[in-house]
Design goal:
Length: 263
């Protein structure tokens, strides 16, 4: 089995201080995609270049303490690709692609951090721009490659993907336009929501993010914002999925899928 995790760290230094590396070592992962690293290259050197024996690759934001994505892997990639749009969102450190190519297969693993629009209309417009450019990029990529995109997508797709869907219909993350984009990606775009393939109807146990306000975590008032999105052949190899909640490294929980495949 190939064990692949996605986790929004909400700061790699913070998550590390809360036991992330110990959990990672005990979990015997093959690869972990991380988002919101919130560090620059200089901050990572000598401290976070590797974790639990996994080698790290990163795409950091230009702005200090902001966004950034990474990937820790047991296997050496054939290519490392930082960014995808050559502009606005590459500057924010929102996309890292590692390629594992052999004569038999072209495979891409992607760690991506989709923008949040929760802070106001300007960031919501940026989120819509991101959705507009990431979609054709993924469609072009999957024409010649198998891929799994792991990340904090910042969209709860269905009513069963968040606790209080009725009161959030006008809030970023559950807007009709965002949900429609996800539906298009899965239907017309041919990508597969791996968690929902394995657990089509689960509700309260599917959440991966909880607000730090009030008692959201204690009361499990959560959202499913973190995904594995895969091309169909790879999605078919997914055998199990788990969301780890015994420890809290971040305001997000790690979501791990075991795939019946080899790199």
């Amino acid at each position: 089995m190939f064990k692949l995790t996605s986790l929004n760290l909400n700061g790699i230094r913070s998550a590390s201080s809360k036991g992330l590396e110990h959990w990672l070592a005990a979990s015997s992962l093959d690869c972990m995609c991380v988002q919101e690293v919130k560090a620059q290259e200089a901050d990572l050197i000598g401290k976070f270049e590797s974790l639990a024996g996994l080698g790290g690759y990163f795409h950091c934001a230009e702005k200090k303490g902001y966004a950034g994505v990474g990937m820790y892997t047991r296997f050496e990639p054939s290519h490392v690709i930082q960014g995808f749009d050559g502009g606005e969102f590459d500057a924010e450190g929102r996309y890292l692609e590692l390629r594992f190519d052999t004569p038999m297969r072209k495979l891409s693993l992607i760690s991506s951090y989709f923008p949040s629009g929760a802070s106001g209309p300007e960031r919501q417009e940026a989120k819509f721009r991101f959705l507009d450019v990431i979609y054709p990029h993924l469609m072009a990529l999957k024409k010649g490659r198998e891929l799994i995109l792991c990340g904090d997508i910042n969209i709860a797709h269905q009513q069963i993907d968040l606790k209080n869907w009725r009161s959030n219909q006008k809030n970023s993350g559950f807007l009709p336009e965002e949900r429609a984009w996800m539906s298009t990606l899965l239907a017309d775009g041919g990508m597969v929501d791996v968690y929902r393939r394995l657990h089509p109807q689960t509700t309260d146990t599917c959440y991966t993010w909880w607000s730090n306000r009030g008692q959201a975590y204690a009361n499990n008032v959560g959202w499913r914002l973190d995904y594995h999105l895969a091309t169909p052949a790879l999605a078919e190899t997914a055998r199990s999925v788990s969301i780890y909640k015994d420890e809290k490294f971040s305001d997000h929980a790690p979501i791990t899928v075991s795939y019946d495949m080899n790199l």
